[in-house]
Amino acid sequence: MPAAEPDHAIEAVRDWIAQSRRLCVLTGAGVSAESGVPTFRDAQTGYWAQFRAEDMASEPGFRAHPARVWHWYQHRRGLVSAVAPNAAHHALAGFAAQHPGRLTLVTQNVDGLHQRAGSPDVVALHGDLFADQWLDACCPQCTPALQAGQLTATEPPACPYCGNLRRPGVVWFGECLPQAALDAAEVAAQGCDLMLVAGTAGVVYPAAGLVLQARDAGARVVIVNTAPTELDRLADAMLQGAATTVLPALLG
Ligand code: BV8
Questions:
Q1: Is the distance from the beta carbon of residue 219 to the nearest atom of ligand 1 less than 6 Å?
Q2: Which atom of ligand 1 is nearest the CA belonging to 207?
């Protein structure tokens, strides 16, 4: 783990935060890493290492291998259910509680850890790992209640009448983001005076595009990451360090 950023850099960004009236925070998988949730950059561990996340997190991937993809999500649900929010999640929730209305939290994560830490009004760009929805248009008998209790670890529940499958309620690659979430994220990015970008490689769009929108609207951009990112060229400051170290130092 690289050494944490020198104190003077932290102090400078703390001053920017103190001066900020509208703070937008964009988080990625790196914020949950220290809770024990593998990031997408990290090779998936064990059995899952043989598959590409981009293939598994897609409708074609699910249609081709529904049991495999469903099992991957069940595996992730079990893993996330067993972990807790970390100091980074709590620092963001604590700041929001102390400064109502000053911070908009936009996350790419589907693990729900920001919400479990108490962050209010989280803008969840990519959905919820623990939600399910129907894959195709429903027949009159496709009722989720019908499937209750059939969440087996290896097979997606299916409507016994039309064969429609349940699928995870997340945004897959190649799928549009929920318009309301994207609109809220763009309003926050274009309206903020400071954007903190924490724990994201900045590879996935349109989420990563929010950082350019903030910069183009005149906001300062601060990146918090353990490694270089695709967004570093947009940063006014880059604080190299773990989210659980840097975010509490900035927001506490
Ligand atoms: C879409 C849910 C319209 C599922 C996810 C330009 C514009 C629009 C679209 C595209 C475009 N270019 C390409 C596209 C297509 C695609 C895309 O972006 N592809 C990438 C791979 C190039 N985008 C889409 O398909 C999006 N849909 O735009 O719809 C459309 C439709 C059709 C055709 C075109 C456009 C939908 C994208 C959403 C996909 N769903 N998640 C699930 O989770 O199963 S994305 C998923 O991966 C995550 O949600 C997250 O967003 C992403 C992973 O990114 P990160 O969060 O950054 O995580 P990563 O592991 O990569 O990096 C971790 C970082 O943390 C690293 O930097 C590391 O250094 C750091 N770190 C590690 N530990 C720590 C740390 N930092 C601090 N502290 C630590 N301790």
A1: no
A2: 51
